[in-house]
Amino acid sequence: PPPPPPPPPPAISSPAPTMSAPSPTPSASSSASSSITVQGFTHQGLTVEFECSKTDAWNKQHSLLVAKFINKTDAPLYGLHLQVAVPKYVTMEMKPPTSTTVPVTAGSSTKLVTQRIEVTNTMLGTKNLMLKLKASFTSKGNKVEHLATCSGFPAGQY
Asked: Under a CB-based contact definition with an 8 Å cutoff, are residues 86 and 134 in contact?
């Protein structure tokens, strides 16, 4: 007798999540060097997001994080200072921000203040990238300090 037909492949409705952290929103570009955006924190009108991308095709452990500072208040933020700490298995090089004054971010015309952070996760695939953030700035005359932990990076990728 002829062999039975192979069973139909299972219908794939959505890929199974492989990590417990909230999944970052992929950015609009889906090119080969696609970047993802990971939320750092939002505090007293300042939002920090990290646009993460791979700059070295040959070095998967190396990533470029561009911190984007978004001001949701109605006045500029002054004296911006971001400190980043990483675990021992991550090496980091930080550049100064493009400005220490964050203008009110209104619409797409505003030039965003950014800061480049290059990280190398020497235990990629074993341990996930995690950043401890300390931001300080002055908003409407008040000095603001905020501590946050950013661990929303996709497992095994950054």
From this structure: no
